[in-house]
Design a protein that fits this description.
With 319 residues, the protein is mostly helical. The chain contains 15 helices and no strands. It starts with a helix and ends with a helix. 38% of the residues are buried.
Length: 319
């Protein structure tokens, strides 16, 4: 596993470096720096406040899922796990790394490992679903701002994701149908069946799922508003409706395991998405950089908690 993670880091590191070199060659870096320096202090304060709300909502969303299944973990402990895992996950494949770290840490603190993984899986599922929902909404509101935009593309993706989401809540029945009896009886098969059963238990918690869905959409709205404020803060004059269109795609790019901490390829994608709106490349690159930096800043509380725990462990010494 360590070798796979190391290999992944090398691949993503090389890809990140390659994209950054291409961007540096094609885009005026001096103009990009000037755009960054124009960032209004008021925008910084507003985005920092929204980042705090963003993290609070995300932690609350996960706690709702934990409480729905009666997980034996305190609110303080759940918040610590979420924040620290978000920081640690920055060094692992994007998005997935934080989820793996969160599921692993929670499974160490509770006797029900499958329940821990299930809560993270459902949390991630609703996060992705909310991005798609916002993307469809953005396509409806601002899709005509881009000539030649496939009108049915995002609705088709939304239908696929929603169908997959519903199917996932019936994972126990799907596994029984799809997996041969011999596979189900094997060690990995039994673990997979336990996980499918744990995920399927959320079918009986419709109130919790509805709350998580609403909070997930709230998180995406907060992130879109943050990007809009950052754009306005460096002088990008693009209507908010266009952010509803391009940011969901940018958010998915940031989740893909193709970069380190969202640097490189996701920035190139955001620059490309802003081109149809007439945003100059230096300003687009500046905005994409600020979006990445805001994500890193949001993980700083987790970094502080991690380092604090590491210092405490060092001070106590071996037992």
């Amino acid at each position: 596993m360590t070798a796979n993670l190391t290999g992944s880091l090398w691949v993503r590191g090389l890809l990140t470096l390659a994209v950054l070199v291409i961007l540096a060659i094609k885009i005026d870096m001096r103009a990009t720096a000037e755009a960054l320096l124009r960032l209004a202090p008021g925008a910084v304060v507003a985005v920092l406040a929204l980042l705090a709300v963003d993290r609070g909502v995300m932690v609350w969303r996960w706690i709702i899922l934990l409480r729905a299944r009666g997980a034996d973990v305190t609110t303080k402990s759940a918040a610590w796990i979420y924040l620290v895992s978000s920081f640690v996950g920055g060094f692992l494949p994007a998005g997935v790394g934080a989820d793996v770290a969160r599921a692993f840490t929670l499974s160490q603190r509770t006797a029900r490992g499958s329940e821990a993984v299930a809560s993270v899986a459902v949390d991630r599922l609703f996060g992705l679903l909310s991005i798609v929902v916002m993307g469809v909404f953005g396509a409806v509101v601002a899709g005509r701002q881009i000539d030649g935009t496939p009108r049915l593309l995002l609705p088709a993706i939304a239908l696929i994701v929603m169908s997959g989401s519903v199917a996932m809540l019936w994972a126990d029945r799907l596994m029984v149908t799809m997996l041969p009896g011999g596979v189900q009886a094997s060690g990995p098969g039994r673990r997979l069946m336990r996980l499918a059963d744990a995920i399927s238990q959320y079918r009986g918690h419709r109130g919790a799922l509805a709350a998580v869905a609403l909070l997930s959409i709230a998180v995406q709205v907060l992130r879109i508003v943050q990007a809009y404020l950052l754009g306005r803060g460096i002088g990008i004059d693009v209507p908010f409706s266009y952010y509803l269109l391009f940011m969901p795609i940018g958010l998915i790019a940031l989740l893909l395991p193709i970069s380190i901490s969202g640097i490189g390829a996701p920035q190139g994608i955001i620059v490309w998405l802003l081109a149809p709106a007439g945003v100059p490349q230096p300003q687009a690159l500046a905005l994409s950089t600020l979006i990445v930096v805001s994500g890193i800043v949001a993980n700083l509380p987790g970094a502080w908690l991690y380092l604090r725990a590491a210092r405490s462990a060092t001070a106590e010494g071996p037992k």
